[in-house]
Amino acid sequence: AKKAGAKPLKLLASPWSPPAWMKASGKMCKRGDGLLPEYFEAWARYFVRFAEELEAKKLPLWGFTVQNEPDNLDAAWETCAIPAEEERDFVRFYLGPALERAGFADPPRIIVWDHNYNGMIERARTIYEEPTTAGYVWGMGFHWYGEQLQQNVQYVHDMYPDKHLIFTEGCMEEGVYLGDWRLGEIY
């Protein structure tokens, strides 16, 4: 893909769960389960190591999200619950400093939230109102699922115009419906 494109390839990564041994339940697919605080530093090192490995292969990581769907407490797939305060503190005390210490020429951008419209405003306030954390964070990712509150994207932009917003996930879960433009309109 990198050789075929006319523009530089930009890679964005998003973890769905830390390893099971870092979580309270010992399972990757446990609903509502989170990362144990004693593993925050190790988990931050996973991010750095992942970026280093890609860079060594001449595939620099443009950015990553802290956690895919950190507020999804009832999924049957790999998840990790991360409340807003925990995401803020993980970036502030662990992930941001770990990336600084790694000394990347072009460090991967940190993207928070990476979830639905409905929780964006509260998450943005919690993270961006803490100056050290805000300094590490490039912006906020969002998905199109759940309650259709697209106006929240504009609200977050208006509140924090220096921060970026990026659509990070959207899929059609139940098949193709020819002639039905509802999903296209959500984009």
UniProtKB/TrEMBL annotation:
Similarity remark: Belongs to the glycosyl hydrolase 30 family.
What Pfam families does this protein's entry cite?
Glyco_hydro_30
What name is this protein filed under?
A: Glycosyl hydrolase family 30 TIM-barrel domain-containing protein
Highest rank taxon of the organism:
Eukaryota
One annotated Gene Ontology cellular component of this protein: membrane
Start and end of every Glycosyl hydrolase family 30 TIM-barrel domain? 6-175
What GO biological process terms does the UniProt entry carry, in alphabetical order?
glucosylceramide catabolic process
Give one GO term, molecular function aspect. glucosylceramidase activity
Record organism: Alexandrium catenella
Which keywords appear in this protein's UniProt record, sorted alphabetically? Hydrolase, Signal
The cross-references to InterPro entries, in alphabetical order and at most eight, read: GH, Glyco_hydro_30, Glyco_hydro_30_TIM-barrel
